[in-house]
Design goal:
3 helices; 33% helix; three-stranded antiparallel beta sheet; flat; 101 residues; 19% strand; single chain; alpha+beta
Amino acid sequence: MKDLKHPEDTYTSVAERYHVSKATVLRLFDKHVDIMRKPLPMVLSIDEHYFPESDMDSLYCFLLMNFITGEVIDVLPTRRKHSPCSSARIFWSVWKAELKS
C-alpha cells in the first residue's frame, strides 16, 4: 500500500515490482482504501490551463470545476488521455455511471 502513495506509481508498476497481477494490486487497494467521492455538480466546467512551471511531461493541466460556484473539483497534471495519471479515466467512468442512474 505504501507504494501507491506516490503519484508516479501506477497499479501496473507496483504489480511488476512485486511480480503479481494488476488485478491483485487493484483488489488489495480496494480492500483497504475507501475513498468517498463528491457528487458531481449540476454544471461541470472542464478546462485546461497553461502551466509553464510544470515538472510533468505536459505544460497544460486539466481542470474540473463547478461552473456555478467556481469550486475546483480536481486538477490533473496533464490533459493527455493515456498518461500515468489515470484519474481522468476513472472520473469519466464514474460520470457515465451517474448519468445512467
